């Protein structure tokens, strides 16, 4: 679907950094949407995934920023956002009116600080983490939670629509991250239920893949249960486990910052994350009914 361009509505130039398992298909979707896609990658090999999508490659972050109306960042954590913004000449090349968008998951309070640092440059900031992982990005069915100014949100709507089936502005900067962290806490708590079930099924000597398949289609099913061995494979489980542990600590810090106690939910969510690799391994083992 081509993006509409006219003197009144010029074609948006979207800079994108973070061509990982989730970021690359998001960037592909932006290019396929007909937006003017600009890329920079620390490792040139990362650009191979973009071969079939029209784009412009920049050799420095500063050059990418100078060419971008919207700068989309799909990076691991808030520290990576700061690294980009503090790269030499980036702030000098950031044009007034540019919108910087953080698609990674981080701390709500830290995102407020990032927004404040950009405001003095005349740039806007949206925290817009996504849910759905790599599979959702490839299917272009992500959910995007957005915090920030409504005008900046509307300007970025064509970008979000490229890879999302649900986009919701949750409030001011930080509210997108808070919503994502609440979602992740629920996901990992549900994962603890799935881990407990798989361990018990092993002790009962039932066919674990068969049990998970039928329960996933029944009233006991959940997104976490359905993901074991499908969206979450043994190959990617260790990587996801590390991200889950990071995110639940962000969740706990954010809740404590509001004077509330997150410990019960934090402990359960961490237990779910800690059991992920074991659960996926058992979920993908050959069936062996008693």
UniProtKB/TrEMBL annotation:
Transmembrane segments: none annotated. It holds the Pfam family NAD_binding_2. Keywords: NAD, Oxidoreductase. The keyword Mitochondrion does not apply. Residues 14-169 form the 6-phosphogluconate dehydrogenase NADP-binding domain. InterPro entries: 6-PGluconate_DH-like_C_sf, 6PGD_dom2, 6PGDH_NADP-bd, HIBADH-like_NADP-bd, HIBADH-related, NAD(P)-bd_dom_sf. Gene3D superfamilies: N-(1-d-carboxylethyl)-l-norvaline Dehydrogenase, domain 2, NAD(P)-binding Rossmann-like Domain. Residues 174-260 form the 3-hydroxyisobutyrate dehydrogenase-like NAD-binding domain. One of its GO terms (molecular function) is oxidoreductase activity. Its EC number is 1.1.-.-. It comes from the Bacteria. SUPFAM superfamilies: 6-phosphogluconate dehydrogenase C-terminal domain-like, NAD(P)-binding Rossmann-fold domains. Belongs to the HIBADH-related family. PANTHER family: 3-HYDROXYISOBUTYRATE DEHYDROGENASE-LIKE 1, MITOCHONDRIAL-RELATED (PTHR43060:SF15). This is NAD(P)-dependent oxidoreductase.
